[in-house]
Amino acid sequence: MKKKDIYITKYSGESAIFDSDKIRNSLKYSRASQPEIDQIIKIVESKLYEGISTQKIYRIVHDQLKKIDRPNAGRYNLKKGILELGPTGFPFEVFIGELLNRQGYKVEVGVKLQGDCVQHEVDVVAEKDNEHFMIECKYHSSFSTKCNVKIPLYIQSRFLDIEKQWIKQSGQNNKFRQGWVVNNTRFTTDAIQYGNCVGLKLLSWDYPKNESLKELVGIYGLYPITCLSTLKTREKLQLLDKSIVLCKQLCKNPGVLKEIGVKPNREKNILEDASALCTSRL
């Protein structure tokens, strides 16, 4: 006998039929084993009710995964971890700068560049193979907030103003190559359409396919410290205030845990989890 469909409530408020395959795929990406996945799915299905929110389902999955394998719970927590890189958005810029650095770019965060008309403060400037890229980071604290077409329109106009000024400089004609928009949630369809039309590079949680933010983080093992379930919210904020954004930074500076008051008995677990999340898929 076929099970009755259960409707869940998404971040956007829309309803959708519960699909266990989406959880399976997320858990596979988090490196959970097949028996662990089957066990968690069974528990989730036993707790379902009509209208249950995706946030509630997420918490059930994350809590179960924490009991089985804390590092995998950290990987599963990536989406929420990136949302916690606030409230200023600057840690997100640092995060993106490190991600580009690992891909061979020379990176500067928070740069003032003179355009043809006005001066611009650019979130990240990246250089590779003697070409420059102007990168604007759009951070949102809620996953229901999407980056609409107004953002790439605005970024493209800034890029063109900076490019026009650079072209005037001797030997710089082709160096400023492209503007980028990096968003920690999602782009609307018209934002993607416009970006592709004018040649802006767009990067978000799930775009472009196979080269999205979540894919790149997994490939290079650049998980933010906000993914760690062993850290308290207060401790995460204290570490961000000290410019410790990534697990790899925490592993290189373990003494910072003592500075923020973490007891030795917890310090070991935190560093073990952080070290496990630094493992890349390369």
Features:
13 helices, 282 residues, alpha/beta, 17% strand, 3 domains, 5-stranded mixed β-sheet, Trna Endonuclease, Chain: A, domain 1, two-stranded antiparallel sheet
SSE layout and pairing:
Layout: E1 7-9, E2 15-17, H1 20-29, H2 34-46, H3 54-68, H4 70-76, H5 78-83, H6 90-102, E3 106-114, E4 119-128, E5 131-138, E6 146-147, H7 150-168, E7 176-183, E8 186-187, H8 189-198, E9 201-203, H9 213-220, H10 233-241, H11 247-252, H12 255-259, H13 264-277
Parallel strand pairs: 5-7, 6-8, 7-9
Antiparallel strand pairs: 1-2, 3-4, 4-5
Written description of the protein model:
The chain has 282 residues and is α/β, with parallel strands linked by helices. It has three domains: 7-76; 90-220, Trna Endonuclease, Chain: A, domain 1 (3-Layer(aba) Sandwich); 221-277. It is built from 13 helices and nine strands. The chain has helices at residues 20-29, 34-46, 54-68, 70-76, 78-83, 90-102, 150-168, 189-198, 213-220, 233-241, 247-252, 255-259, 264-277, and strands at residues 7-9, 15-17, 106-114, 119-128, 131-138, 146-147, 176-183, 186-187, 201-203. Strands 3-4-5-7-9 form a five-stranded mixed sheet. A two-stranded antiparallel sheet has the order 1-2. A two-stranded parallel ribbon has the order 6-8. A hairpin with a 4-residue loop joins β3 and β4. α2 (34-46) packs across α3 (54-68), α4 packs across α13 (264-277) and α7 (150-168) runs parallel beside α8. The N and C termini lie far apart (44 Å).
